[in-house]
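Weekly puzzle thread! Below is a chain. First person to post its structure in token form gets bragging rights.
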Amino acid sequence: MLTGPSGSGKSTLCGRLADDLRAAGRPCGGVITARRDAQDGRGLDVIDIRSRTRLPLAEFDRLTGGPVTGRWHFHAEAFATGVAWCLNAPPEALLLVDEIGPLELQQQLGWYPLLAHLAACPGPVLATVRPSLFEPCAAALAGRGVHRIDIDSGCRDTAAARVRGWLGLAP
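Winning reply:
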């Protein structure tokens, strides 16, 4: 698991790793969350790693009719689509899930249906999580060897090198 505070570069690193894997001809799949600053307000999008399809995932302080955590209002249909993207990834692919958070671990919503899949997935898995949620996330993935890589603005390159080494990619 890749841990770090908001804005530390977890999603950026996941996107770069997916690009590196594609360039090396290795399969990868899953979802990456990206910030969206639109004229009508802030939001989050979910991106399918394989097709690069992008859908609105959440709105800040704007009702969506979906799950809510804090001031974020989520689009339930984006979660359903994102879960399908993850479940359809090739079994040998690196499966990336960015990010498992309070919605999943406290409300059992969002990417929650993926937790059992991540625990049993035969291929490598990389999930992002905030440091305060590492322990509950690791417990949810019980039975799978979980390694923690911390990232912040001062160690992005070191963290990226560790993940690349774990995946057998050149630095």
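Puzzle host: Confirmed. Bonus trivia for everyone else. The first strand starts at residue 2 and ends at 3.
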